Amino acid sequence: MSVFVTVGSTGFDELISVLNTREFLQSLRTRGFRGLVVQYGASGDQFRLPNEISEELGIAVTGLDYAATGTQQHMDGAELVITHGGAGSILDALRARRPVIVVANRRLMADHQCEVAEELGRAGYVVAASSDTLARAVVDGGFLRLSSFPNADPRPVGEIVDEEALLALV
Fold first, then answer.
1. 3-state secondary structure 143-170
2. What pLDDT, on the 0 to 100 scale, is given for residue 107?
3. pTM for this structure?
4. Per-residue three-class SS string for the chain
5. d(CA 66, CA 64)
6. Can you give the pLDDT at residue 150?
7. Secondary structure (H, E, C), 123-149
8. What does the pLDDT look like over 100-145, one tens digit per residue?
9. How many CB atoms lie within 10 A of CB 74?
């Protein structure tokens, strides 16, 4: 079983640093995960895996920068996705039908990532965590009890386009 972590194209040093810790790596092992793929974006300097802890715990680690990654393929192959709070990354993980833990980057754009994560968490689609609570969120296993995110219904958009096209002809 594997976990995919993504921070998108920006850096998220706080999240990447947590991944290096015994507490986080032990939380993965406790839940039966043996693989960890980390897309570290601009936080490559903080990525220190694999390390002696991951090796001791038997967790195989792969690191990818943003340009080299096939994010959707990694999400599709993971049993758990841990993502920053960017709406695009969250939606990609939800559409892949993977359990999602969102760690919002509180340093970006007036805390908007927290608002998105908390609202989706209240709706039961994701587990909202912080860098400080990530290991506990993995151990607690709330991600195993999430609701499936509904598929988008493209009909309303099509109906609006059709309506506007007819108005343009009149």
1. HHHCCCCCCCCCHHHHHHHHHHHHHHHC
2. 75
3. 0.87
4. CEEEEECCCCCCHHHHHHHCCHHHHHHHHHCCCCEEEEECHHHHHHCCCCCHHHHHHCCEEEEECCCCCCHHHHHHHCCEEEEECCHHHHHHHHHCCCCEEEECCCCCHHHHHHHHHHHHHHCCCCEEECCCCHHHHHHHCHHHHCCCCCCCCCHHHHHHHHHHHHHHHC
5. 6
6. 87
7. CCCCEEECCCCHHHHHHHCHHHHCCCC
8. 999 998 776 666 788 888 999 999 999 999 999 999 999 999 999 9
9. 21
Tokens 């995960």 belong to 33
Closest-CA residue to 114 (of 122, 123, 105)? 105
Beta strand 127-129 with 2-6 is unpaired
Identify the residue whose tokens are 């895996």: 49
* pLDDT tens digits, 26-41: 999 999 999 999 999 9
Examine the pLDDT at 167 and tell me if it is beyond 80.
no
- Residue type (1 letter), 132: D
Q: Count other C-beta atoms under 10 Å from residue 3's C-beta.
A: 25
Instruction: Name the token pair of 46.
Output: 């903080």
Instruction: Indicate the residue type of 50.
Output: P
Residue 54, both tokens: 């991951």
